[in-house]
Amino acid sequence: MNATATLLFVLAPLPYDIAALEPYISEQTLHYHHDKHLAAYVNKLNELIAGTRFEGMPLEQIICQSNGPIFNNAAQVSNHELYFAQLSPTPKKEPEGMLQAAIEECYGGVEALKEKMTAEALSLFGSGWVWLAADDKGKLYIISKQNAGTPLTEGLTPLLAIDVWEHAYYIDHRNARADGVRSLWEVLDWSVVSERYNNR
Ligand code: MN
Q1: pLDDT tens for each residue of 13-72
Q2: Taking the CA atoms of the chain, what radius of gyration do you get in angstroms?
Q3: Does 109 score more than 90 pLDDT?
Q4: Distance between Cα 121 and ligand 1 center (Å)
Q5: Of 73, 93, 125, 192, which one has the greatest count of Cβ atoms within 10 A?
Q6: In angstroms, what is the span from residue 165 Cα to ligand 1's centroid?
Q7: Measured torsion, CA atoms of residues 164, 166, 167, 173, in degrees rounded to the nearest 10
Q8: Which residues pair with 163 in a beta bridge?
């Protein structure tokens, strides 16, 4: 066994069948988004960090210490792992426990939060991400980031990710980003988001 092989990042498998999110997110979209786009970020990251001080470093640490192509690929690996893991064919439709209480307090309820995040997603120009994130005191933030941006670089814990790159919705919805966001809400598993909040 090659010793360096253990240091490579691997493509995290989808935690559900590739067709399981239909009709909201098609098998074809997941095939391109996970098996092609995310796989390419993982491979490129491994290629870029080989022989550098980043080799063998945890992903979060690479993200906080790098810039340029290494940051872009490392952040995209992390962003997509968070994105795919928050989706489910049998999603919990409402936040739970402490997260539910924090959303109530900050935004007046989950429907208002979804509206606010959707509006952010529709107004973000170009490619990027809209995040729900939390600080260590539990305060919530809605954050728009261009390109590969992540709340991790601000010391915040990412809870929920809306991918507004066209590759996330173009096959299913063409240019209609609003329909892509609407579909995302249908398969978003709030139990995963709530757990991230509890574990922050
Ligand atoms: Mn994406």
Answers
A1: 999 999 999 999 999 999 999 999 999 999 999 999 999 999 999 999 999 999 999 999
A2: 17
A3: yes
A4: 14
A5: 73
A6: 6
A7: 100
A8: 129
CA–centroid distance, 2 to ligand 1, in Å, is 31
Give dist(CA 58, CA 52) in Å, integer. Answer: 13
How many angstroms does the Cα of residue 164 sit away from the middle of ligand 1? 7
Cα 1 to middle of ligand 1, angstroms: 33
How much distance in Å is there from the Cα of 167 to the middle of ligand 1?
6
CA of 110 relative to ligand 1 center, distance in Å: 24
> Average pLDDT for residues 125-151, to the nearest whole number?
98
pLDDT tens digits, 144-182 = 999 999 999 999 999 999 999 999 999 999 999 999 999
How far is ligand 1, taken at its centre, from the CA of residue 97, in Å? Answer: 29
pLDDT value at residue 1:
42
Would you state the pLDDT for residue 6? 54
Cβ contacts of residue 79 below 8 Å, gap of 6+? Answer: 129, 148, 150, 158, 161, 163
Full DSSP string of 101-127 = HHHHHHHSSHHHHHHHHHHHHHH--SS
**Residues counted in the chain:** 200
